[in-house]
Amino acid sequence: MSNKMENGEGESWGMRYPLPLIALLSLGSLIMYTMRFNVTIALNGDSCKGDLAGKYGWSNEDKGQVLGAFFYGYCVLQVPGGLIATRYGGKLVLAISMLGTVIFTAIVPFIAARNVTWLVLARVGCGLFQSSLYPAWATMVSTHLPPNRRNLATGAFSAGSSAGVIVAWLVLPNLQSQLGWQYCFYLPAALGAVWLLVWVAVAPSHRAPPRATVEKDGLLDEESRLIPKAITDTGSSAQAVPSQTLLQWVVAMFTCPAMWGVYFCSIAVGWVFYTLLSFLPQYMKQRYSLDLEHAASVSVIPYALRFVVLLFVGRLADWLLDGRVGRSKVRKVMTAVALIVPAAALLTLALSVQTETVAIALLVIGVGASGSVNVGAIYAPIEMYPETAGASYAMGNLIGNIPGFVSPPLTGWILDQGGCPKATAKVCNGTATVGNSTAGPVLISDECERAWGAVFLIAVGVSVLGVISYSVLGGMHPVYRQSRSKNSAVQ
Asked: Model pTM?
């Protein structure tokens, strides 16, 4: 690779060969999500064979604190990570993000035995380093990929996250039962280290998007001109961002109605996603008496469909936006599908007892449909503020991940109040035991059933708020008004 390309004077190889870069980014997302989700496997394993929660006698509330700890760190550096990625490029930030995540994942087996607080701190550290993952990705997409491949990249990167959950479900339960819960952390950390070496060796370095490219894509408007021009100058390294211009960007983030639509939608999507991601294994164990290995084969299906949906909707959005449908309509329809379908599925589970087959079908459809939001409201900040894609995306991602540290502890508390089996309850051949005593078949009480219903109803309410908010506010930005005008002219 020539020095001109490295220094931003030439075209990034991602512009000429976008698919290899998209694949590498998606693989990184897969590994990152495996390291994010592995703690759920370790906490919910078959206690007869040894799991983390059962080993140390942690309650549902303790588990909720551990599951939510990641997001305390994850929310802290979202926006700073985006600004740093804008300043120094996505390659460096992604490398640091992966390195820190690998370290904090690998040390878990050595510190978890102390007490739950040490594990919480390790998860906070893991979240801190992963917080710049999506901002750095957004910067890579906006500066190293052509416009007609960005929706595909969005779908593929998000599909990588679903693939990470799938890989975790398919591989880690068996690994845990054979070698112990510690290997739920060792294996993902080793994979992350290998990806890091490849990324440092081949990923394109920092370059700024030519202003002509942004104008050609039809995304430059009065609000995007508020963004620092330093990051659009080619032929020289980025300069320091003037404080007044940075202040204007911050003001735009909190005064743009469309961004508030993104915020409300992101909270709704995050609430449903992280509630199910954290507690779906426990629900399947308690409600249908499945051990982790059987629950894994069931729980992987929704995320497999979500993986397919993410790949499909990325191409679909690129096709629709090729002069066929306006930007605002595409984003709103994709967002509505992603929130209404899961809400309907969870409402059905909350209001009536379902057979195992029906429950699985509802969860598969609900989680699968949620993938379309990644080319809906979630993508909108990149579209509205292309010149600071990393930082603008990070703002939405920051707010959207607040449910990550609110929902798991709240859900754990609701389940404890409902008398649901605690983490110390073991499931051995369909029989619940506490300590050395047998507690009989795993049949949850009516109170526990109502507790799960409350968990699902809260998710439904948040989803309804999210889809209404984005439907009203999502199109209130010059990019979308401009898009509507162009489509009217074509017609």
From this structure: 0.68
